[in-house]
Specification:
The complex is a heterodimer of chains A (240) and B (220).
Chain A (H helix, E strand, L loop, with lengths): L1 E10 L2 E11 L4 E5 L6 H8 L7 E6 L2 E2 L4 H8 L2 E4 L10 H10 L5 H14 L15 H13 L5 E5 L7 H16 L3 E6 L2 H7 L2 E6 L2 E6 L1 H6 L4 H11 L2
Parallel strand pairs in A: 3-8, 3-9, 6-7, 7-8
Antiparallel strand pairs in A: 1-2, 1-4, 4-5, 9-10
Chain B lengths: L1 H4 L3 H34 L5 H10 L5 H12 L14 H25 L3 H9 L4 H11 L1 H17 L2 H7 L9 H11 L2 H30 L1
Classes of the chains: A alpha/beta (240), B mainly alpha (220).
């Protein structure tokens, strides 16, 4: 579904990503874990084609989307990203959630039904007319998730999407991600919550200092870390 | 107050003309400066900072200077003298449009800059095209952009230099609130000047209330 090949990213003179290669298949949940500043957000932005890599290629569904603006636009319309701190448009919740549908020219009748359904999925039924700026952090995060899922993307990118949520809401979101994965949606999620990565992911990638130091099943990562760096990170963060 | 409450025909006529000229200038300036501000904000080019600095410098453009330049352009011997716009409401509209354009352009740029990059990223990540993302940012900046337009209107309505030099303060034709106040005060008709002054302040107050209301509603 999405593949990064030898991706390098440089920001402000520093190498943020160093020769990162990974692939998420259709219906797969790939979790990217790593300490703060390891390049998780940059990787997610590169995969979402928001920022171009300084070197390397990005493929979406087998098509090289690294440079061609038209191909990037087409690919971007087939994926969605939820940021760690989602920006709300200064309109109603309904208008926020329907944004992706409106810019795709979907009819207003279909929009209403899909928005209602998306809000129900994230536990925010009846929030349609609320002003987005009046939402709490957790509610805004759920609206952002509804906004990302309502367009029925083939790839969902999550950047610490449950970091600001209470455990119960995070669990609701995790169920939603798991269900979406079972329905064929590919998910790439950056998280510092190792237990969440373990619960949800089919595969886990460990990013340390911009390098993908290990990529494998959750069992491999958490039980057979390949290097001292990985072992130290997963044990420290898991509280082992 | 009696002149205002009794809707004195001269007071009403001067007020209506002032509003008509200021509104026309503001509409024309908005049509020109909102896209121009957007163009400057959304494009990176060499000398962009210098252009923005120049626009900001022109915020405090003296009204008499604009009046002088437009006078020279529209006077019989000037390049646009054949249009016969000197001492007409049309000439006053041109002068006021020039006067308020820098502040409206600059404030439009500031309004668009006030929308954080996260809004653009969100729009693009949800599938917006470049044009749709720009439109979204402009919608997000709508309160500040409307405030820019209203401030332009306030400056157009309250300026006296252009109105006096280009309009000529001709009774029943180019006389507006500010020039009438200046004239009547010099003639000693303080009562009439006060009436016009109260109207001018009231309009400014309404514009300010509108700005605050718009910002309060949209930014809350």
């Amino acid at each position: 579904m999405i593949e990064a090949r030898g991706v390098w990213a440089r920001r402000g003179g520093a190498e943020i990503l160093k020769d990162v290669s990974l692939k998420a298949d259709r219906g797969e949940i790939l979790s990217i874990i790593g300490p703060t500043g390891s390049g998780k957000t940059t990787l997610i932005r590169v995969l979402n084609l928001l920022d171009p890599p300084n070197a390397g290629r990005v493929f979406f569904d087998g098509v090289d989307v690294t440079e061609d603006e038209k191909e990037r636009f087409i690919a971007r319309r087939r994926m969605s990203l939820v940021f760690q701190k989602p920006a709300m448009f200064s309109v109603s919740v309904e208008k926020n959630v329907s944004y992706g549908l409106r810019i795709r020219g979907i009819s207003s009748h279909a929009i209403r039904d899909r928005v209602r359904s998306a809000l129900r999925d994230v536990g925010l039924s009846g929030y349609e007319k609320r002003r987005a700026f009046s939402l709490s952090g957790g509610e805004a995060q759920r609206v952002a998730l509804a906004r990302a899922l309502v367009t029925e993307p083939e790839l969902l990118l999550l950047d610490e999407a449950t970091a600001n949520l209470d455990p119960r809401t995070a669990e609701t979101i995790e169920d939603l991600i798991r269900g979406a994965g079972e329905d064929g949606l590919s998910v790439v999620m950056a998280t510092h919550d190792l237990n969440q990565a373990r619960r949800l992911a089919n595969r886990v990638g460990v990013l340390v200092g911009g390098e993908l130091v290990q990529l494998g099943s959750p069992e491999e990562i958490f039980e057979r870390p390949r290097s001292e760096d990985v072992a130290r990170f997963v044990r420290a963060r898991s509280g082992w | 107050m009696e002149l205002i409450l009794a809707l004195d025909p001269t007071v009403v006529e001067i007020t209506a003309r002032s509003l008509a000229i200021a509104v026309t200038s503001t509409v024309i300036a908005a049509i020109l400066t909102v896209p121009l501000g957007g163009l400057i904000h959304f494009h990176n080019f060499k000398g962009k900072r210098a252009v923005v600095n120049l626009i900001q410098t022109l915020y405090s453009l003296p009204t008499v200077t604009v009046g002088l330049v437009v006078f020279l352009l529209l006077s019989r011997s000037g390049p646009f003298g054949s249009l016969g716009l000197l001492f007409t409401p049309g000439g006053m509209v041109i002068g006021q449009t020039i006067l308020i354009s820098p502040i409206m352009t600059g404030l439009t740029i500031a309004a668009l800059s006030g929308v954080g990059p996260a809004v653009r990223d969100t729009a693009v990540s949800l599938g917006a095209s470049k044009f749709q993302a720009i439109f979204t940012i402009m919608i997000e900046a709508r309160a500040a952009m409307l405030a820019a337009v209203l401030l332009g209107f306030g400056r157009a309505l309250s300026e006296v230099g252009v109105a006096m030099m280009i309009g000529g303060n001709i009774r029943g034709y180019t006389r507006v609130l500010t020039t009438a106040i200046a004239l009547e005060t010099s003639r000693g008709d303080i009562e009439f000047s006060m009436a016009l002054g109260i109207i001018l302040i009231s309009i400014s107050l309404i514009v300010n209330l509108l700005v605050n209301r718009v910002q309060g509603n949209w930014w809350a």
